[in-house]
């Protein structure tokens, strides 16, 4: 026979509930467990934080004392005064050319995108060689490559200037 368990428990509840729990002892046990957990967590956290800070401080001191963290940027003027003057002249010429070209290409940037991409590629290569100069030091191959970069940049800027002038002259002839 099937007995409905829920119905049975409701009817016989008073007979089954023999003992009453002591509420005070239950809550005191819960409170004691909570206090112990709070004491354990901060001690563990502070130990980890102290070890982490000690590691960071040690790394900082070692990097500053050995000079690993402070890498000096080397330029061609650091290698020789003559190379520094040559680099400064190339930079000045390249900047002047760029200032001439910039307003002309702003109208038709898409027409000269291939030359602008060449300039971007040159800039990427120059950054790589500059990084090599910082890491390796004065190397004749790197120095020649950096000077060659400026020469090529000036040639590309000259070509851009020539192409923009051609296009402007062609547009003027068409409108006349």
Keywords:
176 residues, mainly alpha, 2 domains, elongated
Q: How would you explain this protein's 3D organization?
A:
With 176 residues, this protein is an all-alpha fold. It has two domains: 21-66; 76-175, no CATH class. It is built from seven helices and no strands. The chain is elongated and about 110 Å long.
Tell me the layout of helices and strands:
Blueprint: H1 5-11, H2 13-16, H3 23-66, H4 76-79, H5 81-105, H6 113-136, H7 140-175
Helix pairs in contact: 5-7, 6-7
Major sheet: none
Mean pLDDT: 79
Q: What is the count of structural domains?
A: 2
* Terminal-residue CA separation: 112 Å
Strand content range: under 5%
Number of helices: 7
Short account of what is shown:
The chain is mostly helical. The protein contains seven helices and no strands.
